[in-house]
Amino acid sequence: MQPARSSGILLHPTSLPSGRLDADAYAFVDWLAAAGQSWWQMLPLGPPDEFASPYRARSAFAGSPGLLADPKAPVSESEVEELVARQAYWIGGWARFAGRGALADQVRFEREWQALRAYARERGVRLIGDVPIYVADVGADVETWPELFADGAVAGAPPDALSASGQLWGNPLYDWPAHRAAGYRWWVERFRRTFELVDLARIDHFRGFVSYWAVPERHKTARRGRWQRGPGRELFDAVGDLPLIAEDLGVITPAVYRLRDELRLPGMAVLLWAFGSGRNNPHTPRNFRTRQVVYTSTHDTDTAVGWYTKLSARKRRETGLDPAEPHWAMIELALQSRASLAVIPAQDVLGLGSEAQMNRPGTAGGNWQWKLKRGQLTDELARRLRDAATAAGRAGR
């Protein structure tokens, strides 16, 4: 799968001024269309954990009730029955876990989400979702299907440029032989649900399907984890050909790239990492492939301006970026690149600093809190972004 040459904006719905699927969400779609953008990318939509992390959602299937514009909207018995019939695989387990009102909330989520999606589609804006590789340690999935999860170790990532001690996520790991014995049914249903809600999806931590970092339980950092083999292509053959983006960042091996390319999935490049690191740096535009998605920054990195201001004067000069507007220079670099899809976090469109960073890997608290202010995304910014997208051959209708 390769998206047509286009561009979009990364903004999780919780970062809307209201944090909900209300008038602010529709106004953002209007702004995207005015700005010539074809995609709205967001983070996972499931009910987040106690730290508001969408990457430890309490369900791999349910939508977050916290996004509802009208959490008290009436729900009929027939609507509940229809939803239960259509989502029979997972909805009962979620209702048992979440308790009273859970079914009605999912009816409301379905109603509001599909209305917003239809509104976006009418304006030429499609939705990019995010599929976390793991689920929460306390959640409906572990309670409903305990046989699909392994004991003795938890998920994480080894030390890398994002964290010197690695990332101790703490999510339960999968019992892959059990998934194989079940024909990967849980994954088939998970992707089916995903594409009921979005048009394209970034699959988080893609390298974990080749091999994953398993950290012994009760360890306080991820330093002493070890690599274990994942299911590889077998899982993707079971779920079928899907419109996915492979998040191929971090410690990547040739086997990970082989699987990505066998599946013909676009990978990712991040311009914050484009400067330095030699001629073979995969984040440098000259090394981009057409089947690729380029980001100026991501939810797990500093913003473009935050990163730039932390560089030494010499390193700033070496980037060649405009010191007056480094974020805009990076936006134009992304748009002009050969990558088929360019995605820009809203923080970078606005030129915001480190205070607007969405997540700081390795820290549990204080993340996922940044919000737009009403009126921040102006008509002038929309015109400027549309002009840049048009010049790069990416503008939507």
Q: Could you say how many structural domains there are in total?
A: 2
- The radius of gyration computed from the alpha-carbon positions, rounded to a whole number of angstroms, is 21 Å
Q: Which H/E pattern describes the elements?
A: EHEHHHEHEEHHEEEHEHEEHHHEHH
Q: How would you sum up the global shape? A: globular
Alpha-carbon distance between the two ends: 22 Å
Strand order of the largest sheet: 9-6-3-2-1-12-11-10
Helix segment tally: 14
Major beta-sheet overview: 8 strands, parallel
What portion of residues belong to β-strands? 15-25%
Task: Give the number of DSSP strands.
Answer: 12
Task: Output mean pLDDT.
Answer: 95
The helix content, as a percent range, equals 25-40%
Q: Could you say which structural class the secondary elements and strand pairing correspond to? A: alpha/beta
Low-confidence stretches at least 5 residues in length (pLDDT < 50)? Answer: none
Outline the structure in words:
The protein is α/β, with parallel strands linked by helices. It has 2 domains: 1-41 and 267-277 and 294-397, no CATH class; 44-61 and 112-262, no CATH class. 33% of the residues lie in helices and 15% in strands. It is built from 14 helices and 12 strands. It has helices at residues 23-34, 77-86, 91-98, 102-122, 140-144, 176-181, 185-197, 233-239, 254-262, 304-309, 313-319, 326-336, 346-349, 379-391, and strands spanning 6-10, 39-41, 126-131, 149-157, 167-174, 200-203, 211-216, 226-229, 244-246, 267-270, 292-295, 341-345. The strands form 2 sheets. An 8-stranded parallel β-sheet has the order 9-6-3-2-1-12-11-10. Helix 2 packs across helix 4 (102-122). The chain is globular, with a radius of gyration of 21 Å. The mean pLDDT is 95.
